Amino acid sequence: MSLLRIIIWMCAALCLLPCAAFARAKVTLPHSAPLTAVCVAEAARASGLPMAALIGILATENGKLGEALLNNNGTWDMGPFQFNTVHINELADMGIAPEAVLQDGCTNAYAAAWLLRKEYNRTGDIWQAIGAYHSRTPHRRDAYIAQVKSNLARLSRSGIFALPLLAPDSAPDTITPGMEGGQ
C-alpha cells in the first residue's frame, strides 16, 4: 500500500466520521506483524539507546497497531509509538514504507528508535531526546518527560507486561526499565 493510498484511506475515514467536538479522528487498518518486546529490544540495540527510553515512550504514547490518529496540525500519529507523519518522508528516503510504520509493530518500534536517536544526536541528552520525541516546545517537552518518568516508575513496580501492547511470550525473562543518569 502506498503513502497516497494511506492518505486516501485517512481522508475517506474523516469524511465518514461523525463530528465530535473533542474526539481525535482515527483510521484503523489491519496490522501485519505484532509489536513484541523482542522488537523493542532490538530497536533499542540497533539505535544504541536504552531500551527503557523506548519502553517509557511506548507506555506514554499508548497507541494501537494499525491505528492512526489525526492531530490538530493536520499530521497523523501512527501505531503503538504514535510515530508522527511529519517524519515519514525521511523514513521513505531510507526505504521504509509508511504503511509498514502503521501496520508492522517492529517497524513502528524501529521508526521510534530512529527518531529518538536523531533527537539524542541533536541534544546529547537522553531525557531531552525523549521530550523532543513528543515536541521541541519547552513546556510540552518537559511535561512529556515527566509523563515518561512517571510511566517508567509505574512499570518498575508492575513490570513491563503491564503494557497491554507487548506479548509476554516474546520477551526476554527480565527487562528492567530504570534509567539513571544519561545514556
Q: What about the largest sheet?
A: 4 strands, antiparallel
Strand content: 5-15%
- How far the N terminus sits from the C terminus, by CA atoms, comes to 37 Å
- Encode the helix/strand succession as letters: HEHHEEEHHHHH
pLDDT averaged residue by residue:
84
Q: Which consecutive residue ranges, at least 5 long each, have pLDDT under 50?
A: 15-21, 169-183
Strand order of the largest sheet: 1-2-3-4
Class inferred from helices and paired strands: alpha+beta
Radius of gyration: 16 Å
Helix content: 40-55%
Q: What's the β-strand tally? A: 4
**Globular, elongated, flat, extended or rod-shaped: what is the shape?**
globular
Can you put this structure into words, describing what you see?
The structure is a single chain. With 183 residues, this protein is of the alpha+beta class. The chain has 8 helices and 4 strands. The chain has helices at residues 3-16, 37-47, 51-61, 88-93, 98-103, 105-123, 126-134, 138-158, and strands spanning 26-28, 67-70, 76-78, 83-84. A 4-stranded antiparallel beta sheet has the order 1-2-3-4. A hairpin with a 5-residue loop joins strand 2 (67-70) and strand 3. Helix 2 (37-47) crosses helix 3, helix 3 packs across helix 8 (138-158) and helix 6 (105-123) packs across helix 7 (126-134). It is globular and about 40 Å long. Mean pLDDT is 84; it is low at 15-21 and 169-183.
